[in-house]
Specification:
The chain is an alpha/beta fold. The chain has a single domain, classed as Aldolase class I (TIM Barrel, Alpha-Beta Barrel), CATH 3.20.20. The two termini are 15 Å apart. α3 packs parallel to α4, α4 runs parallel beside α6 and α6 runs parallel beside α7. β2, α2 and β3 form a beta-alpha-beta unit. It has ten helices and eight strands. Strands 1-2-3-4-5-6-7-8 form an eight-stranded parallel barrel, surrounded by six helices. The structure holds orotidine-5'-monophosphate. Orotidine-5'-monophosphate binds next to β8.
């Protein structure tokens, strides 16, 4: 796994909030306890892309989580449009055509493309319901292998699959894991879940944590504890 300069970079805080004012207030409350923020559908479609560009200009790292998936031309041009935001990461779904298009769209921009394998809210029954015959672990491994072949920079999966994914993608690509809960925290809709310490021991590069931080009385303290648990 690539070495980090700053251990705080291991934690990516998911800013799944209703508007930019709420996100700005949370970033201020967390202060220097976090260095990396994710902007997904909720905030992204409510002015969050400009906000992400502002965070990047302040020297914070940003992750644009739009999980793109469309015909190749649309994905390629969409990624190209997003590549000027100064973001560090952008997600696409891990379909070979989509991944190859995203890699073309990001070429030369410095934006790293992450491929989402199987959502952490899916268990075996959910994958079967969606039409997949493979066990989730096998589907994650297949998609990780295809992502590496497509030239993708990193994989989004559950930390439960990190060891097998590392075997598929080698030491230099990134593993980013949502579905992370400090011991005792409510799972919400997450089904393939690990603690920050377990994820780190499994060799992940970054964890993504939303509600346990955004819903906390003291978000800064929770962020600090998560970083410490992964040190
Ligand atoms: O791509 C993601 O970030 C993602 C992939 C995945 O498989 N599961 C997953 O939960 N996420 C995102 O990670 C965040 C997890 O949030 P919490 O469950 O609140 O910690 C959300 O913003 C999800 O959109």
């Amino acid at each position: 796994m690539p070495e980090l300069q700053d251990p705080r970079d291991r934690l990516i805080v998911a800013l799944d909030l209703a508007d930019v004012a709420a996100a700005e207030a949370l970033v201020e409350r967390i202060g220097d306890a976090a260095t990396f923020y994710k902007i997904g559908y909720r905030l992204g479609y409510a002015g969050g892309l400009d906000f992400a560009a502002r965070l990047a200009r302040r020297g914070l790292k940003t992750f644009i989580d739009l999980k793109l998936h469309d015909i190749g031309n649309t994905v390629e041009e969409g990624v190209r449009s997003l590549s000027g935001l100064g973001a560090t990461f952008l997600t696409v779904h891990a379909y070979p055509q989509t991944m190859r298009a995203a890699v073309r769209g990001a070429a030369g921009s410095g934006l790293k493309i992450l491929a989402v394998t199987v959502l952490t809210s899916y268990d075996e029954a959910d994958a079967r319901e969606a039409g997949y015959a493979l066990p989730v672990a096998d589907l994650v491994a297949l998609r990780a292998r295809q992502a590496a072949e497509a030239g993708i920079d990193g994989i989004v999966c559950s930390a439960a699959e990190a060891v097998s994914v590392r075997g598929e993608i080698g030491p230099d690509r990134l593993i980013v894991t949502p579905g992370i809960r400090p011991a005792g925290a409510s799972l919400g809709d997450q089904k393939r879940v690990m603690t920050p310490g377990e994820a780190r021991a499994a060799g992940i590069d970054h964890v993504v944590v939303g509600r346990p931080i955004t819903g906390a009385d003291d978000p800064r303290d929770v962020a600090q504890r998560i970083v410490a648990e992964m040190a």
